[in-house]
Amino acid sequence: MTAACETTPDVLRRRYARDGYVVVPGLIAADALAELRGDIARIFSLTAGIKTGDPYPDIESAGFNQMLRDLFENRFEAYHGAARLCNHTVSLHRLSTDPAIQKLMRSLGVAVPAICARPVVWFHSPGLARSERYHRLPAHQEWSNMQGSIDGMVVWLPLLPVTAEMGRLQVVPGSHRDGLRPLLDGAGEDYPLSMDMDGLSDTDFVEVDVPLGAALLFSPFLVHRSGTNRTEQARITANFRFNNAADPSFIARNMANPFLYEAPASLMTPGFPDASQVRGYFETMLQESE
Ligand SMILES: O=C(O)CCC(=O)C(=O)O
Ligand SMILES: [Fe+2]
């Protein structure tokens, strides 16, 4: 029996309602994690020039972390493109719609889960950040970006073991029950969604230990922030956000969603590709299939 089944749905529901979050061990299948970890490693390896089919380093290895730093320092646009592509992997999307996670969310009140935002992979490391918020998110409520159903849910999970030295996620238990807190007046451009900390202090935050294979599920109103990664290793995690399509307040607000997704109005690389590049690709394919 996995740890996930040792706690009954009623106990989890009560804990979720009281604290605003639950950690559920043994929820994520090892092969789903391995597939996503492999995709992340492959994307950065291809970006760094490792050929398709050649071995590539594991995301926990020193070699992989060196590769990330080299790309970040010497080819930032390539680093950024690869990091963003990780958000578009099929394995990440498959994991975010994993039936075990969906079933658990439904048992915690998200009757009709609907994707709020594209799933995200975070790479938190001071050596891979142009400003602090890219390696350590200040205190916030996820509602500030989701703005959907009151009973939506955030799923956060580590893609490698996140130790205390790597800075675990920190939450203020019970803070969800106070609802939406004001945003910080005049918050800088770096993180415009910074929350007003009035009435909260550092001692209100607790670190949440989420082992590999577990997931943390929390309310969009739970106050949370990143711990500090004091290691050389990138702290790699995933974040999935959901609304409940059955929430009457969400229906009344026309199922509001503040995220923008737009088709381009012009070519990003004018003149690319020329006809010979396209022809070359298909002619090689034809020759190989003869
Ligand atoms: O991983 C972190 O430290 C912060 C992530 C976060 O704020 C989130 O997933 O909502
Ligand atoms: Fe967050």
TrEMBL record:
A Pfam family that the UniProt record links to this protein: PhyH
Cofactor: Fe(2+)
Gene3D superfamilies: q2cbj1_9rhob like domain
GO-annotated molecular function: 2-oxoglutarate-dependent dioxygenase activity; iron ion binding
InterPro entries reported in the protein's UniProt record: Phytyl_CoA_dOase-like
Transmembrane segments: none
Tree of life domain: Bacteria
Matching PANTHER family: ECTOINE DIOXYGENASE (PTHR20883:SF48), PHYTANOYL-COA DIOXYGENASE DOMAIN CONTAINING 1 (PTHR20883)
Name listed for the protein in its UniProt record: Phytanoyl-CoA dioxygenase
Lineage: Bacteria, Pseudomonadati, Pseudomonadota, Alphaproteobacteria, Hyphomicrobiales
